[in-house]
Design brief:
Layout lengths: L1 H22 L23 H7 L3 H11 L4 E5 L5 E5 L2 H10 L8 H11 L8 H15 L2 H28 L5 E3 H18 L14 H16 L5 H10 L2 H29 L10 H7 L4 H16 L1 H15 L1 H12 L6 H5 L2 H13 L6 E4 L4 E2 L5 E2 L4 E4 L1 H4 L3 H4 L12 E4 L3 E4 L20 H16 L2 E5 L7 E3 L3 E3 L4 E6 L3
Parallel strand pairs: 2-7
Antiparallel strand pairs: 1-2, 3-13, 4-7, 5-6, 8-9, 10-13, 11-12
GO molecular function: metal ion binding; monooxygenase activity
Protein name: Cytochrome P450
Keywords: Heme, Iron, Membrane, Metal-binding, Monooxygenase, Oxidoreductase, Signal, Transmembrane, Transmembrane helix
Length: 502
């Protein structure tokens, strides 16, 4: 019966789209100025425009937002559902902080990722989110976790990443490698060691990556594509029938859940037997020690792996490409690194120019291109946009980084110096930039608790790699930005590695 109902709804929806696309005129606009919102029709809203542009949503939204005086647009979807997209920093602050309680992720969003992330911290609201947030925040502020993470980072860079790049550099004639893939493998090793206390050893390029890694890739990609379906009944019907991409998603999620659950049971056994002291420093051990159940712990660590596995690698991939296009900037990073005797924890804190370069790379190519909430009640955004209960409200870091009103006429230039201000006594220092203008780590109560840890990791990798090697992209074409759950560079970043002459 459920299958027949789903089929009926889907065919009815497609029939409406066909009929209205052929016979319906756009809704009359009451305003005298041309609207920056896409053309909307009765009942079906803007779904025709959305479907036409679904494979270029980033540019479509950005173009519309540039035309909007308020940097906010409204996209009407089927049956009066609406998506409000904003690149206005005041609106972002209202959504993420001022009226935080009115903008949870909401069931429509958590449904998209619920199969994979369950009730994990990045896919939950209310008390479930709050309790996980308090526990995670406590752990992330502990010095022992920071020291544990830094030691893992140092060992992974010195004993695995650098040897892999050295091997490519020493190969006769130079071997072409995919730097994005190497950095993704590196990041997966780090996040698994920190979160699970488990070493997948992904940088051993002589053997295939563990099944868990491939399953994460498949699950993340298909879950993200659910959100771009103009009619959500399509993916829900495919899930009901267990066909196509939804069948592949179910298989991938099973692999993820089974693999992580096996690691959890092994960890519990190790802890029960006393284990080694080092076994008790990872997040999994800490969560289990706090008395949380196996399923809750599984969802939590999967969320942390998902958040940390590709975000830092994506940011670094784009930075290495941008540096290849801006040699003067690369020289300044090298100067900063060479002024440090060693890249210790305190040395990294002082690497302000490298941090500015990372921020500038993420402004142009944010690891998470957009993020959505759902209004719990009617509201009015600071720019006057009316929000109705149930509306999807999306803030848009990718578009914000391309707004002249936010970053000036030179928004399209890679200029790390925009992150500095002159001080009469000290010279240039990093200036404080509002997280609502630059929300790549979110902001407000949901601000990323691993933000500083991420900067530490990225600065250490960038400094360690650039001080030893020249990174030379093989292609002269501009890379393509692909926005899935975590954005990546289409086709990877193929490079030659050359040892740097000192």
């Amino acid at each position: 019966m459920e299958t027949l109902t789903a089929f009926f709804f889907l065919f009815l929806t497609l029939g409406f789209i066909l009929i209205f696309s052929l016979s319906t005129k756009p809704q009359e606009k009451t305003q005298t100025k041309p609207s920056s919102n896409p053309t909307s029709y009765p009942l079906i809203g803007s779904i025709l425009s959305f479907n036409k542009n679904r494979h270029r949503l980033l540019q479509w939204y950005t173009d519309l937002l540039r035309l909007s005086p308020s940097q906010t647009i409204t996209v009407d979807l089927l049956f009066n559902r609406r998506t409000i997209v904003t690149a206005n920093p005041e609106n972002v602050e209202h959504i993420l902080k001022t009226n935080f309680s009115n903008f949870p992720k909401g069931k429509p969003f958590t449904d998209l990722l619920g199969d994979l992330l369950g009730g994990g911290i990045f896919n939950s609201d209310g008390e479930l989110w709050s309790s996980q947030r308090k526990l995670a925040s406590h752990e992330f502020t502990m010095r022992s976790l920071k020291e544990f993470t830094f030691e893992i980072l140092r060992e992974e860079v010195e004993n695995r990443l650098v040897p892999v790049l050295s091997s490519a550099a020493d190969y006769d004639g130079g071997r072409t490698v995919d730097l994005q893939e190497i950095l993704k493998r590196f990041a997966f090793d780090i996040v698994c060691k920190v979160s699970l206390g488990w070493d997948p050893d992904c940088l051993d390029l002589t053997r295939p990556v563990p099944a868990l890694v491939e399953a994460f890739d498949v699950a993340a990609a298909i879950s993200a594509r659910r959100a771009t379906e103009p009619v959500h009944a399509v993916w829900k019907l495919k899930r009901l029938l267990n066909v196509g991409s939804e069948r592949r998603l179910r298989e991938a999620i099973k692999t993820v859940h089974v693999s992580v659950s096996e690691i959890i049971r092994a960890k519990k056994k190790s802890l029960a037997l006393g284990g080694d002291v080092c076994d008790k420093k990872d997040l999994l051990s800490r969560f289990l020690a706090a008395g949380h159940g196996e399923e809750a712990v599984r969802d939590s660590v999967i969320s942390f792996i998902m958040a940390g596995r590709d975000t830092t690698s994506a940011a670094m991939t784009w930075l290495f490409w941008l540096l290849s296009e801006n040699v003067n900037v690369e020289d300044k990073i090298l100067e900063e690194v060479r002024n440090k005797e060693a890249l210790g924890f305190e040395d990294l804190r002082e690497m302000s120019y490298t941090k500015a370069c990372l921020c500038e790379a993420m402004r142009l190519y944010p690891p998470v291109a957009w993020d959505s909430k759902h209004a719990a009640n009617d509201d009015v955004l600071p720019d006057g946009t009316r929000v109705r209960k149930g509306d999807k409200v999306t803030y848009f870091p990718y578009g914000m980084g391309r707004m002249e009103k936010v970053w000036g006429q030179d928004w399209d230039e890679f200029k790390p110096n925009r992150w500095f201000e002159e001080k009469p006594s000290t010279g240039p220092v990093l200036k404080s930039v509002s997280s609502f203008k630059f929300p790549v780590f979110q902001a407000g109560p949901r601000v990323c608790i691993g933000k500083e840890m991420a900067f530490t990791q990225m600065k250490y990798v960038v400094g360690s790699v650039l001080s030893r090697f020249e990174i030379i992209p093989v292609s002269k074409n501009r890379p393509v930005f692909v926005p899935l759950l975590t954005a990546h560079m289409a086709g990877g970043l193929k490079v030659k590695i050359k040892r740097r002459e000192h």
